[in-house]
Write a structure and sequence with these properties.
By secondary structure, the protein is of the alpha+beta class. It has helices spanning about 10-50, 55-90, 90-100, 105-145, 245-250, 260-270, 275-290, 295-305, 315-340, 345-370; strands at about 155-160, 165-170, 170-175, 180-190, 195-205, 210-220, 225-230, 230-235. The chain has two domains: about 10-145 and about 275-370, no CATH class; about 155-255, lipopolysaccharide transport protein A fold (Sandwich), CATH 2.60.450.
């Protein structure tokens, strides 16, 4: 009985096998380079902050996913360069073309691999990195800094029925008790006039609702009169955020460590200053575009890899060329980032501009190589 199912052609398997070794080497080499600074940070945590060694090591390990997201496109570039250099130097690509296999068919597995790894990098960026950065913040806060509460101001904006809005201000959040500390609650009507104000020692989260403790309440009438309401030991309120949402927002104040959904949620709250809005919006667009540098680097690497001497690829030459291309790419990306912040309506275009420029260069050189 004949076997059924997906069968990868021999040519594709051969090209991917040639690529995987250099790619693995590049992934390891670039990760070590990036992780070197983290290793120094472990020493500082243990010596300066007297952190337990296990906590410092755990911080190092949780920081690795963020480094890997940056490293994968670089490893993709190096792996493609070295693989194509070896095949070109040994005249294997020439032999394949002489056998009737088109040049684009030869490099098609590498291009497909670039697309696949772009999607993998995007998934790591969106699912793994935000979780890992949250774990880092938790360890630093609970173990290294010995704080049971996130001691930073928390401000939450939320709409009210009828067109008004509510602002909740707290001095800290205690994740162990799931409670906000020193809470001030302000409510405004649809015309922006204050209608209600409350002060409480704490607001704890129970049974999917927030309860203010030891509450002092004040009611404002439309004509400006202030009424002191009877003091209550407990008052139910709606904050429109769960403790999980608050912890996530307070731990991950760096948009580089957030997912696209988390950045969008913070932008939509309207709590950001103009400069913060520019930063968050620009990084949001960059996080969409940057993972696809994997595919862009393959387009660049294939024609550059063909320029080699007979006798196989030179690893040191390939590594140096990869570093040079990466350096130029990220210089262009940095310039485009500044331009994206300066011209916010065009932030998406500037975020994709490095990919557009390098794709144009790669496609042009690839077409020339295919025509030879």
């Amino acid at each position: 009985m004949p076997r059924t199912g997906l069968r990868v052609p021999i040519l594709d398997r051969y090209m991917l096998a040639e690529f995987m070794g250099p790619f693995g080497f590049g992934l390891f080499a670039f990760t070590v380079i990036f992780a070197a600074t983290q290793i120094l940070a472990i020493g500082r945590l243990v010596s300066d902050q007297h952190a337990p060694l296990w906590a410092a090591v755990e911080v190092f390990l949780w920081n690795l996913p963020g480094e890997v997201v940056l490293v994968i496109p670089m490893a993709m570039l190096l792996g493609t360069l070295l693989a194509v250099q070896r095949l070109s130097g040994e005249s294997e690509i020439t032999a394949m073309k002489a056998g009737g296999i088109g040049f684009m068919r030869v490099v098609a597995p590498l291009l497909a691999g670039g697309i696949v790894l772009s999607l993998v990098t995007f998934a790591l960026q969106e699912k793994v990195v935000p979780f890992a950065s949250g774990e880092v913040a938790q360890i630093q806060n609970d173990v290294i800094n010995h704080n049971s509460a996130f001691n930073q101001d928390l401000i939450t904006h939320a709409p009210l029925p009828g067109g008004g809005r509510q602002i909740t201000i707290a001095s800290a959040f205690d994740p162990n008790d799931r409670a906000l500390l020193n809470v001030t609650l302000l409510q405004y009507d649809a015309r922006g006039n204050p209608s209600y104000e409350a002060f409480a020692d704490r607001a704890r989260f129970e049974a999917d609702q927030w309860l203010l403790e030891n509450v002092s309440e004040y009611q404002f009438s439309p004509d400006g009169e202030v009424y002191v309401l009877p003091k209550e030991p407990e008052q139910k309120i709606a904050l429109y955020e769960t403790p999980t949402d608050i912890v996530k927002r307070m731990k991950q104040n760096d948009p580089q460590q957030m997912s696209l959904a988390q950045i969008a949620d913070i932008v939509h709250t309207g709590q950001l200053t103009d400069n913060e809005l520019r930063k968050y919006t620009t990084i949001f667009q960059q996080k969409i575009a940057q993972p696809f540098a994997c595919f862009v680097f393959v387009l660049i690497a294939v024609p550059f890899g063909l320029r080699t001497t007979r006798g196989g690829g030179n690893a040191s030459l390939g590594f140096g060329l990869a570093v040079a291309i990466v350096f130029v790419y990220y210089v262009v990306a940095t310039i485009c980032s500044y331009l994206g912040e300066a011209f916010l309506p065009l932030a998406a275009l500037w975020a994709w501009m490095p990919n557009i420029i390098f794709t144009a260069i790669g496609v042009t050189r690839l077409r020339r190589a295919a025509a030879v």
